[in-house]
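WARN  no MSA supplied for this record, continuing single-sequence
INFO  ligand: zinc ion
INFO  echoing inputs
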Amino acid sequence: MKKFRHPKEKTAALVTFGLGLLASLFFVTVTFGCGLFLLGLGFAWISITMLNNPRLDQYHRINHNNLPELYEMVHQIRKQWRMADLDIYLNPTRQINASASDFGKDFLIVNQGLWMSIQNDVHRKFVIGHELGHIGLGHSWLRVLAYQADNAFQGSLLGILFQFLLLNYSRKKELSADRIGLLSCGDLTAALEVLAFLELSPHNPNMADIRQAVKQMVYGKADHDFSLGELLSTHPDMHERAKELIAFARQIKMI
Ligand SMILES: [Zn+2]
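INFO  complex generated
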């Protein structure tokens, strides 16, 4: 899976962690001992593990009896990527979202709202593949380092700069996960339709709206080259995600 990691994610990770490491080393050398730095890293790991491990008992654990469609699909895609076994949970909320973690035993949480509103198997495979992509590419682990670096510079100008770098890095991780989603569902149109649906979901779009949005993503230009909204969000602009997916589909000769 790792060979499909988006080059932009690699660059963002390098810049983010490179700067973090350099600055940490600088501060460690100047102000603290090395032990404190290592302690900080340990603390970050523990905090992230706790923050990242929501109380899983509030969700429904999925097995092949209570929701076979979800169970079978996740394990089919997991095996396709030769990933280790993982636990699947359904979060009984209408919110359209899903999340994944690779701390301890890998787990995936799918919100009922997302599962119910995306009914088509190919579309669902894109969503599941995207989430498994986050696990397979070790995205949670990288967050530990990010968290530590972020904590180290809190309140300083460097901290603010770091926030921007982290957000940028976070968006690039989405581009990599999208690639895994696309390879898992094998259908570019379906992948773009999911992106359009996620973008439009607050407005209850029908299939015609979604197709129209996909058309716009494929043929239309984003109406801005620079968006403050995007700069401040953890997920990239849908146009960027679509553009990157189309380029990737061409690169691997899917289209
Ligand atoms: Zn994601």
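The chain has eleven helices and four strands.
INFO  checksum written, moving to next record
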